[in-house]
Structures are given as C-alpha cells and as structure tokens.
Design goal:
The longest helix has 18 residues. The protein has 114 residues and is of the alpha+beta class. Strand 1 and strand 2 form a beta hairpin. It has a domain of 62 residues. The mean pLDDT is 88.
C-alpha cells in the first residue's frame, strides 16, 4: 500500500481527510556514512549500557506465574521500584503473559522485559 494523503484547507488550516501508509523494508539500505560518523558513538554507548550487569538471580523467572498467584517476576519489579524510588509501597502488574528473564546475571537490557 503506497502512502497517500488527501489534504483540505479549511479556515486557514490544513486538515488531513485521508491518510494511508505502509512499512517499507530497509534491510537492503546501507546506513548513511555521515550520519554514522556523527551519531555512531551513541549506538556503542547504548550497547555498552544495556550490557551492564545489575545483579544475579538463581533461576529463570516468568510473568506467567503472576497471573495465577505470587510471582518472583513481580517481586523483582516491586523490589526495583522500591529501591529506586525510596517509596513504602509499590504497584505492578505484568504487561505480557509469557515474558521470561533467564537465571544468571541480570543486565540492564533485561529490564526492558519487565
């Protein structure tokens, strides 16, 4: 589906009456060299940041357990929220039915699974 726009000018303002779009594959394109020279460092910094180890857990935890009762997955979320905020109470709910964090080192990137 090609991108199509139908604009109407009404009372001095442009109003979109119809807008269609589509996703285009980008795998075949090489990154712009000038862009990468200017901003490539940020990609490296982000990769290094999300690879940082925060702690270790002894077993794999899953959000699935939270739908049926107590859950180590939700306990981890509560503990992180309480530790970071200094609050006395924490509220959390699983956002996905089947998210897992594998036992072993917990990296910053793993927190995106929470």
């Amino acid at each position: 589906m090609a991108s199509t726009r139908y604009l109407v000018r009404k009372s001095g303002k442009w109003i979109i009456k119809r807008l269609e779009g589509s996703n285009q594959p980008v795998e075949e394109f090489e990154p712009d060299q000038l862009f990468m020279e200017k901003f490539g460092y940020a990609q490296t910094e982000v990769r290094e940041y999300v690879a940082r180890t925060l702690g270790t857990i002894s077993e794999t935890i899953s959000s699935r357990d939270a739908f049926f009762g107590p859950s180590a997955f939700i306990d981890l979320i509560h503990q992180v929220q309480l530790d970071i905020s200094g609050a006395d109470i924490s509220f959390a709910a699983p956002l996905s039915f089947d998210t897992e964090i594998s036992g072993g080192d917990i990296k910053v990137g793993d927190l995106f699974e929470l």
